[in-house]
Every structure is written in structure tokens, then in C-alpha cells.
Amino acid sequence: MAFAVGTAVAFFIVYGFVAKGVRGHIDAWLAGEAEVLARVSADTPRDSVYDRIVEEVAELATQEMPKELNSRGQQLNSVFFLQVNPNNSDPLWVGGGSKERFIEAIRNANLVPGVPQSIHIAGEKAPYRVVLRDQSLGSRVYLGISDRGARHTLHQLTRRFFAVWAGVAVFGFLISYVSARRTLLRIERITETASHIGSEDMSERLPEPANSDEISRLARTFNHMLDRIQSSVNQLRAVTDAVAHDLKSPVTSIRGTLETALLQNDEDKLRDSIGQAIEGLDGVSQVLNTTLDLAEAEAGALKLDRQPIDLSDAVMQLIDLYQPAMAERHHVLTADIAEHVMVDADATLINRTISNLLENELVHLRTPSKIRISLYSQDGSAELVVQDNGPGFPPDIGARAFERFVKGKHSPGHGLGLAFVDAVVQSHGGRIRISDRPEGGAVISVSLPLSLAQPAYAAEMQS
Amino acid sequence: MRLLLVEDDLAIQDFLKRALIEAGYQVDVASNAKTGEAIALEGIHDAFIVDLGLPDLDGLDLIARCRAQGSSAPVLILSARRSVDERVRGLEQGGDDYLTKPFALAELLARLRNLLRRSLPAPRESSKIQTADLELDLIRHEARRADHLLQLTPHEFSLLEYLCRNAGRVVTRTMILDHVWRMRIDPATNVVDVHIYRLRSKVDRQTLRPLIHTIRGVGYVLRNA
Question: Which of A67, A98, A384, B31 has its CB 3.0 to 4.6 Å from that of A446, i.e. a possible disulfide?
């Protein structure tokens, strides 16, 4: 549409220039020829052959213009020559048509010498472009040419242009229509595919043509998105399966315990059974809570109440808490804790994180082992490293250890602990890495950004 | 002491009411916020226990409305939500308390006691605690059983102190972690139990009558059984 309008505007501009040019050319010819004829008329002695000489020259002049004929056979470039003498004797007339009308029209028009003007002649459709030349002897020479010629040319131009323009417009319209339709069809295909990718069949994908235009990119991006969704759906299925499993077992045993309690007569045994059932429920509660916390953490919805925390202090407290449990299992726990390592963190979440790491050790080390906990600051980060000389991470785990419910086939627990730690550490802007020690055993390293209060604190301690 | 319990779950309402009456309180109940507000504004209660998941209004809004109309009794909030948002934190700072479901009755009773104690004039802090033949000197951090000095680590002393202050009442592992280690964590392993066993081995030597008892499914209690 814009293209058509633009072309039309361009045409009008061009038309204007051409028209001006054509008319200018005619006017120039008029002026020039009038000059020539005037001189001839002035130079030729006024004798009997005067008329004939002037007539012949005028004839020659009129024939200079191409003898174009229009469709009806009329001559287009009609030229006339008129010389009016001061004594009003018979004017000299060369040209087609009746000279009376011409003379009448010329008399009514007040021509300015030397300036070509348009005059309407009665009986002629098109005006005549006429120029007047005054002569020294008082006679006036008029030279005129019908505008028909110019008009014809311009009309031809307009018609031809219009034809081309129409052709181009239609062609352009067709192209954009076809192109748009093709694009819309491709988008339609994408929409259709999207609408019937349901949760039952996530395996369908859009065709990806090899080119790199926007639609292809859209198709590729869409396919990637489908891959991610499928992965999430699979993960969700795995999670619900695992949660179901992890809840069903304790619920089953709780139910069994309480049913057994119904059969008890001995009050002590009864209390024991009921107590056992309550403990089982606490375990179920914990799986639920950790799953919810994990979901919250992964959704980025963990609410952090950040304060400057003395991480050294927190670690020491937890080591103190876990020490007896470790000793009970005959583990040897050593600690290498730098003083006053400060981080900006949520106290509860950090405590739970460190607790999870220690729990992890307790749960996974089946035989008496050595466990070493280090805390130090390096390059603006607080580094907490927990390592042991136990069996290390099961080979089938690797980097997936932080996914939910990923755990070795033979390890106990619900597998949410490390996933939770990962989520908490990441929401604090930190990082966690796991690896195996070359000499055997697992290493878990947690990095957290140091608190901005650290330097001030250190300075305070020095003074 | 008279309590108002605003809780829409009838089963919870039932067992809480019974437990509170058993613990010596008078209890009024409301099953929705509208009734709760009406009763609360009578101004005859010493404390409120409010569940956040009420059918007609969020519990926090109910508390705000009551406060706006002049009620100043302390509130114990019960909620299934895990995370503590700013509004609850604000209330906590204002002298109220917050308990997540599911909770141990022992914990609810302990927090309730705390709430009510704050509104009473502070009792004179004594420097000694005595239960049967167990004596704790809080200034010198020394514990003696039958005049025999016990060799306790600082944490063991704090743990014993907490048990003695709650003598006769059951304390849960969560409560112990909260008060003695000042942490709100939920370990899956028996870390607290091991501490209790160690303490017990020092306090309840075989020749003496045991003071520290395990209540299966709930926690521990220090009493002269």
C-alpha cells in the first residue's frame, strides 16, 4: 500500500517536471522561431514576393514540429503564423483552421511581446500557446502552436505510467499477499502443533528448516521450550513418585504401629507404640516441610532475612551440636575454623544448610571415618569445606547430586538435603561444588560472598 | 487464665481445647474470624491462639482488627505456612509468638506460658534452681547432685538448666534446639538424643534415682519419678 502511494507521489513529481520541460521546450521553440520569422519579415523587402517568402519560411517553421497525428488523423502540432500590419491591410496568415477566429482571439487577448501565453481559440479544444513579436515597422508577428501536441505527449506519458504503476501495484500486492500468507501459514502450523501438544504426548516437535529467518528461529526456540517443559514434567513426575514413596512407607508403618497399639493391653507397651507413631509422623512432617522449602527455594521464593552473621560462630555451634552424634558412630571430627568469617545471610537458613551438610555426613558414612570441616575467607568469599575419607560420591551421581531425590541406590534418606543446600546457597549468591578426593572420600565446598561488614569488623578487632 | 482459641478445623479445636483445659486454662472457642473478633472484643481473655487459615478472613487481618479496636492481649499464631513473612515478624517483635503446624503440644504450652509470663511482672531471678537432690548454681555455672559436683560442658549445663527450669514438663527436641543451641533446625538424626544420653550418664548415675526421662514420641522431662 505504502509502496503504491509512494510510487504515485513520485509519478506526480516526475509528471510535473516533464510537463514543465515539454512546455518550456515549446515556449523556447516559439520564441526562437518567432525571432527568426520576425527578422525574415523585417529583412525581406515588402514587395510582391514578400508574402510568399514569409509564407514559405513560416511553412518550414511549422513543419519543424513533428507531424504527429492523433488517433483520429488530426494533426497534433498545429502551428500558425500571423503577421498583422499597422495599416490593417490583410494580415498574413499561415496555418490550418479559419484565421478569423484566431485573429479574434488574439485581439481579445492582450499579449505581452516576447512572452508566450496560452489563448483559447473558439472552436479549438486545446488552447494555443502564442508569442508576439513587435517589429520596428509597427507590424506584429504572432506565432502559435496548439497545446494538443504537448497534451497528447503528456497523456501518453500518464497512460503508460498508470499502466506500469497498476501493474507494479498489483504485482507488489500479489507478492506481499503471497509472502504474508506463507508466513501466516507457517505460524498457523506452529499454533496448531502447540495446541495439541498436551501433557500426554510431549514428544512432538515443530519441523526446523535449515534457514535462519525469524520463523525458523521461532520454531527452534519453541522446540527448545518444549524440551525444557518436558524435562520439567519428567522431573515433576519423578518428584511426585519419590515423595509418594517417601511418604507412603512411613505412613504405612505408622498405621501399622497404631493398629498394633489397639491390641495392646500393657499400658507401657501402649505408650511405647503411640510414641513410636508420633515419631513416625514427625518424620513425615519433615519430608513434607523439606519438600515445601525446596519448592519454595527453587521457585526463587525463599524469603531471606539477611543479617551479618558470624559464620565461624555458627559452624562452631553446629559442630558442637553434632559432635556427640559423630562420636557415637566412632567418627573423628576435626575442625579448622578461621575466626570471624562474616556473611550477609539468613541465620535460620544458614544453620539449616550447615546442619544438612553434617547430617549428610552422618547418614552416608556407614563405617567409622574421619571428617574434616574447614572455614576460611578467600578472595572475597567465605569458603566452607566438608570432607571425609569415606566411600565418596556414588559414581552414578556426579553433578546430579543437587537435583531433588537424587541419591545413591544404597544411601538412606530422602535425597532432598543437598538440593536444599544448593538452593539456599544459590539464593545467597553463593556456589556449592562436590568432588571426590583423589585419596578417596567426598568433598563438598560451599562458597558464600563475604559480608560487606567484614573489613570494618576486622579493623575493629585489630584496634 | 482465660484463653480464646480461634481455629476452624474442628478436630484441632477439639484436642487443643482439651489439652489446654488439662493444663489448667479456661478456654473459649471460635470457628471463624467474625465470631472470634466479637468474642475477643469482650476483653476478658489473657491471651489468644489464632490460626491463620480461617475461612472468612486471614488470621493476621483479624489480629490487626482486634488491635485497632483496643485489644492488647498477646497472641500465639498457628500456621501451616513455613516461611515467616514481614507481617508475622512484625507481630513477633510486638511480643507475640508463632508456631508452625504440626506442633507438639508441649511446645504450644511452653510458648503460651512464655506469652503469659511476659504480661506479668517479672519475677525475681533466683541464682539457684533445685529439683530433688539436683542443684544448679546459675552464677558459677556449677551443678551438684547430692552435693557431688558434676563435670559438665557449657552446653551440657545449659541443657540441664533448661530441663530444670521446665521441671515436670515435657520438652521436645525442637524446643531444646531452640533454647539451648538457639537454632531453629529440624535434624533427621538423633543429635539431640545423644546430648541427652551424655547428660543423663553424668546426672543419673546408676546408683541414684533417674531424673531425666524419655517420653517416647514427645521428648524429655526432668522430674523426680
Answer: A384
pTM of the model as a whole? 0.63
Q: ω into residue A412 within 30 of 0, thus cis? A: no
Contacts of A272 in chain B (CB under 8 A): 216
| Residue of chain B minimizing CA distance to A289 | B82
Q: Is A175 exposed, middle or buried, given 0-12, 13-18 or 19+ CB atoms closer than 10 A?
A: exposed
Q: What is the DSSP string of A220-284?
A: HHHHHHHHHHHHHHHHHHHHHHHHHHHHHHHHHHHHHHHHHHHH--SHHHHHHHHHHHHHHHHHH
Picking from A286, A296, A321, the nearest residue to B186 by CB comes out as A286
For chain B, the 3-state helix, strand and coil shares in percent, each to the nearest 5, are: 40, 20, 40
Percentage of residues of chain A with pLDDT beyond 70: 83
Closest CA to A126 of A151, A102, A108, A160: A151
CA-nearest residue to B85 within chain A is A303
**pLDDT (tens digit per residue) in B161-208:** 999 999 988 999 989 998 899 888 877 788 999 999 999 999 988 667
CATH placement of domain A306-462? 3.30.565.10
Structural domains in chain B, CATH included, are 2-118 (3.40.50.2300), 128-222 (1.10.10.10)
The domain spans of chain A are 2-155, 214-298, 306-462
d(CA B39, CA B30): 8
The closest of B196, B200, B45, B90 to B134, measured between CA atoms, is B200
Question: Which CATH superfamily, name and number, covers A2-155?
Answer: PAS domain (3.30.450.20)
Contacts of B187 in chain A (CB under 8 A): 355, 359
pLDDT for A405 equals 47
With a CB cutoff of 8 Å and minimum separation 6, the contacts of B170 are B106, B215, B218, B219, B220, B221
Q: What is the DSSP letter of B94?
A: T
Q: Which residues of B touch A364 (CB under 8 A)?
A: none
Cβ pair B218:A296 closer than 8 A? no
Model confidence band, residue A166 (pLDDT cutoffs 50, 70, 90): confident
CA–CA separation, A261 and B142 (whole Å): 43
CB B204 within 8 A of CB B211: yes
Q: Which amino acid is at B30?
A: A
Specify the CATH number for A214-298; select among 3.30.1490, 1.10.287, 1.10.3470, 1.20.120.
1.10.287
